[in-house]
Amino acid sequence: MLRRIYTFEKSVFSIGVLIGVIIACLLIKSENETSIATSCQIRDSSIISYNDWFLKKDLKRYMVDYDLLSYGKNEQQGILESSFLYDSVRVLCVVFVTKGKNANAIRNTWGRQCNRLVFFSTENITDISVIQLKPKSSWHYLCDAIRYIWGSYGTDVHWILFAPDDLYVIPENLRYYIAHLDYNRTYYLGNDIIFWGQLYNDREAGYVLSIETIKLLQRKFNSSELCLKSGRYWKNDDFYLGKHLSEMGIYPIDTKDNNGCARFHRYNLNYVGAPHLYKSPINKFIKQMNAGCFSEHTITYNGIESDKFYLYYYLLYHVKVFSHGGILGNYPPNKTVSDDEIWKKFVRDEGIENPDLVSAKQYYELWERKIPSPDVLNAFFREQSRDAFSSDGISNSGNQQQ
Question: Is Metal-binding one of the keywords UniProt gives this record (predicted)?
């Protein structure tokens, strides 16, 4: 009964606060019609839709203690929400490869979070397994890739993400955004732009198609010859995709959040965070952005070198913020062998049966025989360096060997 009363009192208070917020919004709207969007739209509609979808699954959430999750015994019930979404929202990630090292980096980083990962290339990439196509235009390339996807994965995935090999993707944020959408309906998601009067999603930011959209595309272009006839130029595959989809009644959906900030970015994090510090984009058809305007649920950002993939992956998946401090992680690890036993074992390995009879001088001499002097060690490293340069085909004069 006390709990019911407490809950009711809290509800009365919450209702009072809500009424106050509504009145404040109405007053703001009467004074300044344009301020209502930023002052009163305090929640992203996609988050509301996701929460409604989640509740229909008859599931409950509870906060995870990072300290226990990272260092405690695995006694917490249930699974992580990201793991649940991984199983429920199946995403195929398609990467168009121009550099083998980028493909390798994707495979070892964000590509792990995809349900399936497929690499396409027009070249024979030796660093990684790719599906090699021989297109005569960029649309021919994309169209044949779509036909391959439908034939190989049509019944196994729900959504298909298309990405260049310098794009960093956060698949968890993508699933969070699309979970409540029906993949059996047509969807075309990304960073929309207009060129020659055509609205389409920019390839550089990546884009996402539902499996229903893939099905309709392969039905329209059921041969490689039809793909080629419907787009004969290079570097405009994204434009042609938007054009053909619009003819089918499928258009880009605005994926920005309620603050007007993008989830799909065609620029790197430096430009997204502070575009005023950089030159304006050369392409005048690309929309400008306000400094620091990126969604808290960003899905993609572009312009990534291969080494940065590993940095961002480490920051996103391995660095944890313990907002309430950590306890378990600050304890030293349990020692299976004592320090005393470690040095005694070393002495026994050197042929002395009773370590307790070894003097400090004898112990030092044992180590001295194992570790060379600084002069000897430096000479060894210099020799190793010379061997390394020689193996690279560089002579002492600095000329490359033929």
Answer: no
Report the pLDDT value the prediction gives residue 110, as an integer from 0 to 100: 97
pLDDT at 325 over 50: yes
Q: Whole-prediction pTM value? A: 0.72
* Token pair 């906060």 in the structure block, residue: 63
Dihedral sign of CA atoms 215, 216, 220, 226 in order? negative
Whole-angstrom Cα distance, residue 96 to residue 118? Answer: 9
Lowest mean pLDDT among 117-121, 157-161, 388-392: 388-392
Q: Residue 155: what pLDDT?
A: 86
- Angstrom distance (rounded) from CA 81 to CA 173: 12
CA distances from 140 to 122, 297, 302 (A): 11, 33, 24
> Which amino acid appears at position 45 of this protein?
S
Does the pLDDT at position 206 exceed 80?
A: yes
Q: Which of 92, 186, 198 is nearest to 145 (CA)?
A: 92
Q: Looking at the predicted structure, is the pLDDT value of residue 138 above 90?
A: yes
Q: Secondary structure of the chain in the HEC alphabet?
A: CHHHHHHHHHHHHHHHHHHHHHHHHHHHHHHCHHHHHHHHCCCCHHHHHHHHHHHHCCCCCCCCCHHHHHHCCCCCCCCCHHHHHHHHCCEEEEEECCCHHHHHHHHHCHHHHCCEEEEEECCCCCCCCCEECCCCCHHHHHHHHHHHHHHHHCCCCCEEEEEECCCEECHHHHHHHHCCCCCCCCCEECCEEEECCEEEECHHHCEEEEHHHHHHHHHHCCCHHHHHHCCCCCCCHHHHHHHHHHHCCCCCECCCCCCCCECECCCCHHHHHCHHHCCCCCCCCCCCCCCCCECCCCCEECCCCHHHHHHHHHHHHCCCCCCCCCCHHHCCCCCCCCHHHHHHHHHHHCCCCCHHHCCHHHHHHHHHHHCCCHHHHHHHHHHHHHHHHHHCCECCCCCECC
Model pLDDT, residue 250: 97
**pLDDT surpasses 90 at 177:** yes
